[in-house]
Amino acid sequence: MIDTNFEVIPIESFSSISTRLNSVVGEKMIFLAGKCSAVFDGRIKSTLDEGDRIVIIKKDLSILMHGPIGVKPLNWQKPQAGPIRFNATEDYLQMFTQRTKTQEVLTINFTKLSFVSLWHAYDVSEIIIYGDESDLVKYLVSFPEIIETGFQVIKTEYNTEVGPVDIRGIGKNGETIIEVKKRKATPADAHQLKRYIEYFQDKEQKDVIGILIAPDFPDKVQKYLDENGLIAKKISWEEIFPTINRPRSALLEDFFEEKK
Prior knowledge:
It is a single chain. The chain is α+β, with helices and mostly antiparallel strands. The protein has two domains: about 5-125, Protein Yojf, Chain: A (Distorted Sandwich); about 135-240, Trna Endonuclease, Chain: A, domain 1. Helices cover about 20% and strands about 35% of the residues. The strands form two sheets. Strands 1, 2, 3, 4, 5, 6, 7 and 8 form an eight-stranded antiparallel sheet that branches.
């Protein structure tokens, strides 16, 4: 199936390409691949010598420049930071943008183009990330027998003066409060559970059972729980919510940190 929303622009002259790109900025995604350099002139100045790169300009005017390797962009601009225009001479095609608020300027000069294309892309989906602690709580609420046979959930995120209890419910030995952790349990986690127990004893005048759920319990934490009558429940979350180990530079928030 041919995608009629995708257009490859013939590389004839920098001037003709500049005219075409200026007519679609903000309407279509723009892909430029070739040999280019970049200069950022603002509160902090940066230069990037010429090299083989791909530049992506999205419909919201965000810009990403990538080299042949690595995850993070070599240069970038946030959405709607400023207008984008293309200029051309016989020797180069220039992308120019000036940030509206700060007047900082980013220029990218292509001396050679290998590929130029436009894509009228459309996407309204939102990314859904599974496996944080709120997802773990929801999973236990959906399958409370994992906690204990016959366990009944009363409320999640039950607010107290010492913090929100992840799960409050009724187990075979009475009312129970549960703290859920995705990572290995720490002394702070065990101490927090004890604070919840003390809150219910002091403020609500009732004894409750405390359960700390985590994938692993170091000896020090297990000892603290045992000494204070608290229960350790080991659940291997990796088996339920598999994750992919990523280098620090691959995290999404890195793309939105102001580093210039």
